[in-house]
């Protein structure tokens, strides 16, 4: 497939560095996830951090009514998207930064749906002073910790301190005295199921362990979510429940939970970066790529491209490095390079000026490297869509 993209870029006279998305594949991924979730009756909230291109976020929302609302990573991002005409924002990561709080107030005052995820009294205090003069209360969701704790071992992410139903109930009771805020449900993300593949060739041992662990953890998570919801409803029957869970990697695990969850989240699955090849529970197509141009040939079989880096966040490892085409490999010494990236191929006879096609390890981070992304369909460029960066937006 990569060689077809290479030929296409040549025909279109497009030279790297550039990012491109194959819209047919992008749309097929959106349809596959929608069809998977549809029988459960749940909605899918779109994780914008995994797209970072407003035109593509809109394309997903237009593709199927199952996609409803956005999960943003920053309040200022949500304000930007609100100004672009989007609605219904869940900001998934707490903030106490004054600029963020005033961004939330602006969206709220526009009458749009907006939720912030919080987990502590300090978060509630920061919000209550900002919203004290608002005409209607601001909605907050509590994040519940779903990491798997096996003795001293923590399998999952370290985010919320809310581990037990009692701790959650205490915070729900506390918020009742703050008239400017309204408790509106939960976000309960299970990173150890959603965010790690169980057939990662770069981590064979961990992958072996993860397979049974993901199933074990998913069962416990379902019980915990259900218990939490029923305890809250027993004491606060008026709670209007939004209950968000999951990500692309755990869609299939969460489907039986349609009595507890009200919605799932997905983002990375639309582009399907290479870390999402390493899951045994779904099969999506690579839809987002970048191309670098060969500018030097230091010795036979080595081709040095202009541009590089593009390392994904997370635990440093070879699985965070972009992957070149199937019959090419990176140098162990330089890896993904900095401003130049050498690739080795015994079979490809590249010329100076040719492109090499790569896939990023993660989804949205690729778009932080470009001002626009080339959208390709049926062998043609349909648009150059601006990324957040192209709009001059940079959050963190
Ligand atoms: C709270 C939350 N929900 C969902 C996701 C999953 O998003 P994706 O589908 O892009 O993996 C993430 C990813 O980091 C997250 O932090």
Write a concise keyword list for the protein shown above.
396 residues; alpha/beta; TIM Barrel; Lyase, Ornithine Decarboxylase, Chain A, domain 1; 2 domains; nine-stranded mixed beta sheet; 31% helix; globular; binds pyridoxal-5'-phosphate; Alanine racemase N-terminal domain-containing protein; Ala_racemase_N; D-serine ammonia-lyase activity; PLP-binding_barrel; D-amino_acid_metab_enzyme
Structural features, described:
The chain is of the alpha/beta class. The chain folds into two domains: about 25-270, Alanine racemase (TIM Barrel), CATH 3.20.20.10; about 290-385, Beta Barrel (Lyase, Ornithine Decarboxylase, Chain A, domain 1). It has eleven helices and 19 strands. Strands 1, 12, 13, 14, 15, 16, 17, 18 and 19 form a nine-stranded mixed sheet that branches. It has an eight-stranded parallel beta barrel with strand order 2-3-4-5-6-9-10-11, surrounded by six helices. It has a two-stranded antiparallel sheet with strand order 7-8. A hairpin with a 2-residue loop joins β18 (about 370-375) and β19 (about 380-385). The longest helix is centred in the middle third of the chain and has 32 residues, at about 205-235. It starts with a helix and ends in a 10-residue tail after the last strand. The model has no long low-confidence stretch (mean pLDDT about 95). The structure holds pyridoxal-5'-phosphate (PLP).
Could you outline the blueprint of secondary structure elements for this entry?
Layout: H1 2-11, E1 18-22, H2 23-37, E2 43-47, H3 54-63, E3 67-72, H4 75-83, E4 89-91, H5 98-109, E5 114-118, H6 121-131, E6 138-143, E7 148-150, E8 153-155, H7 165-175, E9 181-188, H8 191-194, H9 204-235, E10 242-245, H10 251-254, E11 263-266, H11 268-271, E12 288-299, E13 302-306, E14 323-324, E15 329-330, E16 340-344, E17 355-359, E18 372-377, E19 380-386
Parallel strand pairs: 1-18, 2-3, 2-11, 3-4, 4-5, 5-6, 6-9, 9-10, 10-11
Antiparallel strand pairs: 1-12, 7-8, 12-13, 12-17, 13-16, 14-17, 15-16, 18-19
Helix pairs in contact: 4-5, 7-9
Bound molecules: pyridoxal-5'-phosphate (PLP).
GO molecular function, one term: D-serine ammonia-lyase activity
Organism: Pseudobdellovibrio exovorus JSS
Protein name: Alanine racemase N-terminal domain-containing protein
């Amino acid at each position: 497939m990569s060689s077809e993209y290479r030929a296409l870029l040549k025909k279109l006279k497009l030279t790297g560095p550039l990012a491109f998305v194959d819209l047919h594949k992008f749309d097929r991924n959106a349809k596959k996830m929608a069809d998977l979730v549809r029988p459960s009756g749940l909605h899918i909230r779109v994780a914008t951090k995994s797209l970072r291109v407003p035109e593509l976020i809109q394309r997903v929302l237009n593709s199927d009514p199952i996609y409803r609302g956005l999960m943003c990573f920053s309040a200022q991002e949500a304000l930007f998207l609100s100004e672009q005409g989007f609605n219904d924002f869940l900001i998934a990561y707490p903030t106490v930064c004054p600029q963020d709080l005033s961004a939330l107030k602006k969206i709220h005052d526009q009458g749009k749906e907006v939720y912030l995820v919080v987990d502590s009294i300090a978060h509630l205090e920061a919000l209550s002073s900002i919203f004290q003069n608002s005409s209607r209360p601001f909605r907050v969701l509590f994040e519940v910790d779903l990491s798997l704790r096996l003795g001293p071992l923590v399998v999952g992410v370290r985010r919320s301190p809310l581990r037990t139903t009692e701790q959650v109930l205490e915070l729900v009771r506390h918020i009742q005295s703050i008239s400017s805020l309204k408790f509106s449900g939960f976000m309960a993300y299970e990173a150890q199921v959603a965010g790690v593949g169980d057939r990662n060739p770069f981590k064979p041992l961990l992958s072996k362990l993860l397979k049974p662990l993901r199933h074990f953890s998913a069962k416990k998570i379902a019980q915990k979510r259900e218990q939490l919801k029923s305890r809250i409803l027993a004491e606060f029957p008026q709670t209007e429940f939004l209950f968000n869970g999951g990500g692309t990697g755990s869609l299939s695990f969460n489907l039986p939970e349609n009595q507890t969850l009200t919605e799932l989240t997905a983002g990375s699955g639309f582009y399907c970066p290479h870390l999402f090849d390493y899951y045994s529970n779904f099969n999506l197509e690579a839809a987002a790529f970048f191309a670098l141009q060969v500018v030097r040939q230091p010795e036979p079989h080595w081709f040095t491209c202009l541009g590089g880096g593009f390392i994904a966040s997370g635990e440093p490892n070879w699985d965070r490095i972009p992957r070149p085409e199937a019959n090419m490999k990176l140098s162990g010494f330089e890896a993904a390079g900095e401003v130049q990236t050498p690739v080795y191929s015994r079979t490809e006879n590249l010329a100076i000026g040719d492109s090499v096609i790569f896939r990023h390890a993660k989804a949205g981070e690729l778009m932080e490297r470009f001002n626009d992304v080339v959208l390709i369909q049926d062998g043609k460029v349909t648009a150059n869509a601006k990324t957040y960066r192209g709009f001059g937006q940079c959050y963190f």
